[in-house]
Known about the structure:
The complex is a heterotrimer.
Chain A: E1 6-12, H1 31-45, E2 51-55, H2 63-66, E3 70-73, H3 79-89, E4 94-100, H4 101-107, H5 109-117, E5 123-128, H6 158-161, H7 167-171, E6 177-184, H8 188-206, E7 211-217, H9 221-224, H10 228-242, E8 246-250, H11 252-262
Parallel strand pairs in A: 2-3, 2-4, 4-5, 5-7, 6-7
Antiparallel strand pairs in A: 6-8
Helix pairs in contact in A: 1-8, 4-5
Chain B: E1 4-8, H1 18-22, E2 28-30, E3 43-45, H2 57-61, E4 67-74
Antiparallel strand pairs in B: 1-4, 2-3
Chain C: E1 4-7, H1 8-18, E2 23-26, H2 33-45, E3 49-52, H3 56-68, E4 73-77, H4 79-84, H5 86-95, E5 99-105, H6 121-125, E6 136-138, H7 143-160, E7 163-169, H8 170-174, E8 176-179, E9 208-209, H9 216-236, E10 240-243, E11 250-253, H10 256-271, E12 276-281, E13 283-285, H11 289-296, E14 301-306, H12 313-320, E15 326-330, H13 339-356
Parallel strand pairs in C: 2-3, 2-4, 4-5, 5-7, 6-7, 11-12, 11-14, 14-15
Antiparallel strand pairs in C: 1-8, 6-13, 10-12
The structure holds thiamine diphosphate (TPP) and iron/sulfur cluster (SF4) (3 copies).
Thiamine diphosphate binds next to helix 4 of chain A.
Amino acid sequence: MAEKEWIETLIYTKSGSLTELGTHYCPGCTHGISHRLIAEVIDEMGIREDTIGIAPVGCAVFAYDYFNMDFAEAAHGRAPAMATGLKRVNPDKIVFTYQGDGDLASIGAAEIMHAAGRGENITVIFINNAIYGMTGGQMAPTTLPGQRTTSTPLGRDIEVHGFPLRMCEILSQLDGSAYVVRRSLHNVANIRRAKKAIRQAFEVQRQGLGFSMVELLSSCPTNWGMSADEALTWIEEHMVEAYPLGDYKVSPSIAVTKKDEGR
Amino acid sequence: MAKGRIVVDETLCKGCELCTSVCPKDLIRMAMDRLTPKGYHPAMLVDPDGECTGCAICAVICPDSAITVYRLVPAEKVRTPTA
Amino acid sequence: MAKELLKGNVAFAEAAIRAGCEAYFGYPITPQTEALEHMAKRMPELGRVFLQAESEVAAINMVYGAACAGVRVMSSSSSPGVSLMMEGLSYIAGSEVPAVLVDIMRGGPGLGNIAPSQGDYNQIVKGGGHGDYHPVVLAPASVQELIDFTVEAFDIAEKYLCIVIILADGSLGQMMEPAELPEMKKVRSVKERPNWALTGARDRDPNIITSIYMDPLVEEELNRRLMAKQAKIEANEVRFRELMLDDAEIAVIAFGTSGRVAQSAVKTAREEGIRVGLLRPISLYPYPYERVRQIAGKVKEILVVEMNSGQMLGDVRIGNEGRVPISFYGRQGGVIPLPDEVLEEIRKIQSRINASE
Ligand SMILES: Cc1ncc(C[n+]2csc(CCOP(=O)(O)OP(=O)(O)O)c2C)c(N)n1
Ligand code: SF4
Ligand code: SF4
Ligand code: SF4
């Protein structure tokens, strides 16, 4: 029998929907992972030239430097409103926002709520790292009870600061939301699931089914005061319990189109 | 002979060590003898026994897209990419 | 086109449509709501975008988004709503995208009332939002001007990639007057949108629209660019109307509705033999400082009339450069001055002049 011939094949390399620039994120920060996943999904769907992103105010403020596509930078929390304006006059483009938890769940709570309520046909990637990264580690609306931050030095006291907001649970209640799910970036299996969800969210938009959001439990090793690896463990041990992973809203129309595709 | 290999782009690697903790074969080490242009010890493949499978698990966790993965694939399975 | 009887709010909304406005985002507030309602009916009929936002904060950010896509877009509101838009306006200014806003001012501060006022002058004309920028501000005094300036606003905004604000008050918004609307302009196709617009990076490099420049030297560059643009605007876009100033000893300076009231007073005073004229600034930014300076060189006194506590007064003082005495007559809180009240002020000045001679 003849010797089998083997060919060295490229299995994985940096996505073409990302620019060559290295990011400014801290080592091990999962903002980088979520950027990668979004870019890979955009590659796989072949929609780079039709996609317009909106960067938040937060650590991802310079996301437009890293994504190789049209991008705008919004005011703090206003990305969903800006995306609404962009999408309404560019209905055949794919418009997504990328927002942190301060941006989306605190200062931009009204904008995200109403974008979802309207069934705005946009995709939101929501980075929940339980802290304000950019401004140096203050409490976010998603900070866990007891969690120490620079503005809750003794730990978040629910008597004073109230309770964390669970945005998937809230937004999934709105009739306009088509696809609202929570995933986590704390290990390889979960990262793979997160990517599938991001793909589904963009598909929902492409099919015009309404508002889609993927919440990603993320790390902020710097402001949590941990190594990158410890931070992933902290997500697994503390955040997943407070923010259960799962599909909070999958509109029946999505199931239907999936079935149709299968035929 | 190893089925796979990785190449770490040292201009992108920030030495976060996440790849080292996920490699099922424990083949990634930090290069303590040198620094990247940004001042980090980069990750590197240490695979004397050719164990790397090209599974790309390290690339999946890398936040900085620093890892490129190659794998040996039987020739009959390599399809020329269609446009 | 023939003149028809039009309400101010409806007139500027329809004028915007005819100027090719492709998207309107707003939030109801008296006394401009008829504009939003007109848009709600007309825009969908024409296959264009109308959306009632959840707040003025959202509305202006929707305007920002659509402006980034390179379409003609506008919002309208009244004082408290415009306050909420200041953040978005600053971002629009910093990103250098064109946008048009109509502020139908009402009494304030606070919730104030729904009566006509000119109390937003400083907020609108001096920039309003944070940072160094100036919107172009046009002040109409009739329904016809409301129409004409709205149409022009879109051209100016696109020419300079800036914000243009039509600053009017509740009486103009609510007033019915015969006026002529322009012809319907064709809306641009996606291909005709400007080359900086966000339309998807197909066969070109990505476009990025942002207002953050962490390096102060780069931010300074943006500011210098804005300044250069402002210098051009100041050279080319000054607008004003005037009446009987040639031989005048007294100049009345008033904008918008105050200017309209002052005009009646000036005409009556002329009948009484008082040599008085009127300067009605139309562009409040760029302000007609040079014209004020020339007038101050010829008259004996200036009277400023406003529906506020004296906000444009500061700009008149700048133009006057201390040449002649300036007096101020204002009504506040949503009260429109009567022509007789202004006439009385003119008479007082005339007797002062007589006494000194
Ligand atoms: C109107 C306004 N208020 C406050 C700030 C300051 N600020 C910048 S980023 C930020 C919080 C960002 O936190 P988050 O959205 O959680 O994103 P992260 O940095 O954690 O990714 C704040 C408060 C601002 N830029 N604008
Ligand atoms: S501060 Fe936190 S969220 Fe921001 S880049 Fe660093 S690790 Fe990431
Ligand atoms: S490809 Fe797989 S085996 Fe090879 S280094 Fe990466 S994780 Fe380890
Ligand atoms: S995960 Fe990426 S950035 Fe981190 S050490 Fe490995 S190669 Fe470097």
